[in-house]
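Researcher: We're teaching a course module on how sequence relates to structure. For the next exercise, students receive a sequence and then see the predicted structure as tokens, so they can try to spot secondary structure elements on their own. Here is the exercise chain.
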Amino acid sequence: MLPLLTLQWDHLMTGSYKSNTMARIIKSKRASKIDVEGSRRTPRKPTFTIQIDKKRVSHISAVIMLRRSDKRKDRVEISPEQLSDASTQAERLARTCGRPVRVLGWYHSHPHITVWPSHVDVQTQAMYQMMDDGFVGLIFSVFSEEASTKQGRIQVTCFQSINQSPEGEPPQYMRLEIPLHIVPSPRLSGPCLETLVQLPQILCQEELEAYSWTRQISDLDLLTRLHNGAVYTKSLCHIAEVVGGPLLQVLESRLSENKRKMMLLQKEREQLEQELKQLSIESS
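Model: And here is the predicted structure for the students to work with:
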């Protein structure tokens, strides 16, 4: 059965789900249609019957930012060491939250392009599903705009991979959309806040690694070294401008809003105490 995914908030997602097996794909040579939540359509290679079990739900409650091992624009790489460390962090979150937490999937962004996964994304997802058939992938399309209104938009899709090749033939994977529900949250949880704070730090560490690597080259002339230092400084300023500054503004806005709510709650408390005192006087 395929999972329903509930979202409360290249990287890993942690949370919990209600069953050990979330996804089950039934192969059938006679199958001629795909059935997803009652809707039917004819695929190119009709070899699957797929069912949705609404009772099996994944709840994503936190994300873990990872440092990029490959900074090319069309690559999202997660090393085995990072995956193992994410599992350790999930165990720590489980102790903090007092409920089961585990790594549920991975996510990355598609700046300026469509939200649909590329063939590399689909193959990467298939590799993760070999280790855990309940593993899911999320993609966020960002920095895009409507062609008619020129308004910015953010799109998200949740997917898994299925092998559409007959048995005995090389695998040919295709994406399979997973139902996704975004639940508004009135507060920012501690783990999510920690992740937001870590984002500028991770980006700065990546730039420092690249700059440190150039400094290990002994035969660079003075002009090249000055150029590399200027590029490093410019990169840090860019991170502060497009990541650190907006993040600080958002957190300050939340802090002001929380203070306002605290004042309202304090006034409500004082009012209730006065009403309670008045009631006790009248009763006596």
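Model: If you want an answer key for the exercise: DSSP finds four helices and twelve strands in the chain. Confidence is low (pLDDT under 50) at residues 1-10, 17-50.
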